[in-house]
Amino acid sequence: MKSFVDLSIVLVAITLISIRPAYAYLDPGTGSLIIQGIIGTIAAAGFFFRSYLHKFWTMIRGKSTDEDATDPKD
Q1: pLDDT, position 2
Q2: Percent helix, percent strand, percent coil in the chain, to nearest 5
Q3: Where are the alpha helices (DSSP H) in the chain?
Q4: Whole-angstrom Cα distance, residue 72 to residue 74?
Q5: What is the largest CA-CA distance in the chain?
Q6: What is the DSSP string of 37-53?
Q7: Is the pLDDT of residue 69 over 60?
Q8: Is residue 25 within 8 Å of 31, Cβ to Cβ?
Q9: Closest Cα partner for 12 from 21, 4, 2?
Q10: pLDDT tens for residues 13-43?
Q11: Rounded Cα distance, 51 and 25, in Å
């Protein structure tokens, strides 16, 4: 098993040492996809934190939203 680990380390080291430039091309669709992912992540994080912030404030206030909807004081 030790020889397998040693061989793996040597192969990873050789791979990292012999990196060559890729000369890759990113088309405009790739940039659009990246921007869409960033916007989606921000929207999802906003919704996530808003829902947990609402639960937090409801817990702090000590009453649930069901009590607010059926309040007979109106």
Answers
A1: 77
A2: 75, 0, 25
A3: 2-17, 28-61, 65-69
A4: 6
A5: 78
A6: HHHHHHHHHHHHHHHHH
A7: no
A8: no
A9: 4
A10: 998 888 788 788 878 888 899 999 999 999 9
A11: 41
List the end-to-end C-alpha distance of the chain, in Å, as a whole number: 76
* Token pair listed for 46: 């906003």
Name, in order, each residue with C-beta under 8 angstroms of 58's C-beta and a sequence gap of 6 or more.
64, 65
Q: Cα(47)–Cα(51) distance, rounded to whole angstroms? A: 6
Identify the pLDDT of residue 44.
94
Task: Quote the CA–CA distance of 58 and 61 in Å, as a whole number.
Answer: 5
Q: Compute φ and ψ for 66, nearest 5 degrees.
A: -65, -35
